[in-house]
Amino acid sequence: MEFDETQEMLRESVRRFLAERASITGYVRPRLDGDGRTDDVWRGLAELGVCGLLAPESAGGGGLGMVETGIVCEEIGRALYPGPFASSALGAVAAILASGAEERERALLGELASGRRVGAVALHETRSRYDWRAVETRARARNGGGWRLTGVKSPVPDAAVADALVVSADADGVLGLFVVEKENAGIEPLGGLDPTRRLARVTLEDAPARRLGEGKGERDASRAIAATLDRIVVGLVADGLGAAARAFELAAAYAHERRQFGKPIGSFQAVQHVLVDMLQDLELARAATYHALWAADAADDAERHHAAAVAKAFASEAFPRIGANAIQVFAGIGYTWEHDVHLYYKRLLTVQHLCGDEAAHLDELARLVVDRAPPA
Amino acid sequence: MSVPGSEAAEALRRELRAWLEANLEPRFRAVSSALAASADTIEVLREWNRKVADAGWAAISWPAEYGGRDAGVLEQVAWAEEMDRARSPALVNPIGLSNIAPAILAYGTPAQKDRFLQRMRRGDDIWCQGFSEPDAGSDLASLRATALQDGDDFVVNGQKVWNTLGNLADWCELLVRTDPDAPPHKGISCLLVDMRLPGIEVRPIVTITGEAEFFEIFFADVRVPAEALLGPLHQGWRVAMTTLNNERGAVASLHLAVRRKIRDLIERARATPMGGASAADDPVLRRRLAHVYLEGELLRRLSDRALSGIVSQRAGPEGALTKLVWSQTEQHLAEVAAEVAGPEALVGEVARARLASRSYSIAGGTTQVNKNVVAQRVLGLPRSY
Ligand SMILES: Cc1cc2nc3c(=O)[nH]c(=O)nc-3n(C[C@H](O)[C@H](O)[C@H](O)COP(=O)(O)OP(=O)(O)OC[C@H]3O[C@@H](n4cnc5c(N)ncnc54)[C@H](O)[C@@H]3O)c2cc1C
Predict the structure, then answer these.
(1) Which CATH number fits domain A5-118: 1.20.1250.20, 3.40.50.1220, 3.30.450.20, 1.10.540.10?
(2) What's the CA-to-centroid distance between B301 and ligand 1, angstroms?
(3) Considering the entire predicted model, what is its pTM?
(4) Which chain B residue is nearest to residue A297, measuring alpha carbons?
């Protein structure tokens, strides 16, 4: 499976843009204490057309797919860019589309596509761990239209910089997806180990909301949520793939440069084999990720979901290992704040734990292929 | 982004599927491969091989003049998928077809090609590889078996070891030292040796499974005619390396057999009683099964990417990693199969497969040596030894 020329050009232009405008030393590091707000670079990405890739043309978007979106995620992960692309241009847009809310939410879609507003997606709750079906947030219909939401969503990536939140809630026994405007939600940054990907807790107390796909989509939003999550999951894995590839490249380069005992450390077999293990993890993750991106656009629901579970189960297992091995190759300097390798490691830990870890996705795979006969 | 495929491959797939449906009688499935065959059972396998070959379905990547179809890599993969789907037994010349024929095609004289290729394809001759020696394993270039020129003949002396199919082989691709004074890689030649020549003795080696899975071959003043030389004199190392490198088409379909075994294992787990339910319902085993299934899927995606890299001429590291991943997957599969079987893991086929799986990280180059090669060739790191 290969990317076509236009897709390669997209990758090239995003990589170049981020290298010029959001370098790690000049841009990412000075913002490590920030809340993930990156207005100038975000506007630049929007001008590149990147924020609207997934949004339909009717809303001013590119009407493209997850393959293009995943390429951007990969480059963003590679650059450790802290902005809300995955939450807004991918997550919120995918949620609206999966809910059949394209027409009603054309205004919001247009604003997300142009980058003027930022969206974030709040599906998980602390007590439900990774089970997005176990939702305690309640939605109550208001007399005269609209809804009120009460509950706590956490951790929610990029919520601190979001203008609008897509929130799942229990509405009279079925799941619904709702849009809550920022001013109606309590948003509390969580800090956390990864300074390049910001998480927050979102508290809703009788918060006014509108229901996605009302009168249009299915009453029960479970399918829409599942479809949205699969896309968020592969975007997340693509982000990790970029970060993992960069961590591997830095470690491999260091193995050529750093000398001990009069030789490059890359001449020691123990170091070589660590690097080969990293390459194996990386290339397996790459193969699974690209397939899952392809499947999100071109396969049926079952294969899309299966491919996402495969990619995420392995990413959650392998990415922390790649990051840890990279630190080991750098040794002392790799353990410092000054060196960049910890930033990749932290980004990879974020990817490991958001939206289902290895165990959660293995259980999902088991549900698909062990509890019933596996597909041929 | 597109999935590699071609009209030619799909046409071949349809044609082969129909042919297999019409011709693969159940009795041919009695033995799965020559590696599991005895002198008696091999005949059924040979009969099947001839049928396949005479219909033009063996060695399809070869040139048409030697009975192939000039099939490209996508067609080779379609062929492997259909053979797997129909559960066809393997052809009797696994080593000949995948390792030796490429060297003959690349270096053979017209006479050698005419003499050997058709018979290899049909399974009329079975081939083995005589590379390793007691003191030359990973460090193959240190091999010591000699072939000294004497008139029109080579006179071969020495010992080879771990020779798969040594018992059944009619011919051997043999690596020998022809110039003892040259540096290790420069003094080796490759000979195509008739295993019936006087002075050759084959002895079985009983492996950890308790079976004679491979053999050792002793050469005592064996007179081999000059025409046995494959490729230039003293350049057998290069000839042998074509051999070892030429597994790319097969690489892209390595996942088929292991994934089939994984599916079979899951089925078996579902039918294995455990605590009032099945082994597949046990929370620990269920997750282990899911993990080995995951590994099979990863291997498949890696193979697909290797394949699409070949087709689109993108140089990538996937091919170099496939054997590593494949061997790990096979070994994990054997381990999970044993866990599923419980006490039954100590007897029968599960036990045999568990033991046999240790060979996957040794045969064809050990895992460690494989990693050295990736470190040197893919990562460009200096040799560590
Ligand atoms: C089932 C099976 C079938 C086989 N079939 C054939 C056949 O048909 N024909 C044939 O010629 N051979 C065959 N072989 C032999 C096989 O190719 C060798 O066993 C293999 O190359 C390793 O050589 P060795 O066994 O001498 O191990 P050694 O080379 O002695 O290795 C011993 C240990 O040292 C490690 N080691 C060695 N060198 C290095 C290094 N540079 N760096 C790091 N670690 C190193 C190895 O990884 C291994 O763990 C077969 C082997 C098996 C198991």
Answers:
(1) 1.10.540.10
(2) 28
(3) 0.96
(4) B1
Determine the Cα–Cα distance for residues A86 and A159; give it in Å rounded to an integer: 12
Q: Is the predicted ipTM greater than 0.90, yes or no?
A: yes
* Nearest alpha carbon to residue A81 among A7, A12, A29: A29
Q: CATH for B244-377, among 3.40.1170.60, 3.40.50.80, 1.20.140.10, 1.10.10.60? A: 1.20.140.10
What residue ranges line ligand 1, CB within 6 angstroms?
A: B 128-132, 137-138, 162-164, 214, 359, 362-363, 365-366, 368-369, 372, 385
Q: Compute the distance between CA of residue A15 and CA of residue A8 in angstroms, rounded to an integer.
A: 10
Q: Where does CATH 1.10.540.10 sit in chain A?
A: 5-118
Please classify residue B39 by burial: count the beta carbons closer than 10 Å to its beta carbon, then call 0-12 exposed, 13-18 middle and 19+ buried: exposed
Q: For residues B135 and A206, what is the distance between their CA atoms, to the nearest angstrom?
A: 79
Distance from CA of B71 to the nearest CA of A (A): 20
Query: Which residues, in sequence order, are bridge partners of residue B192?
Result: B173
pLDDT at residue B249 above 70? no
Inter-chain CB proximity A370 and B269 less than 8 Å:
yes
For residue A325, the CA-to-ligand 1 centroid distance in Å is 28
Lowest mean pLDDT among A30-34, B134-138, B265-269: A30-34
Tokens 């043999």 belong to B174
Rg (CA), chain B: 22
Preferred mutation among A272, A325, A357, A367 to probe B, highest tally of B CBs within 10 A: A272
Structural tokens at position B162: 């771990």
Residues in a beta bridge with A176: A169
In this structure, the number of other CB atoms found within 10 A of the CB of residue A58 comes to 12
Q: Which residues of B touch A293 (CB under 8 A)?
A: 1
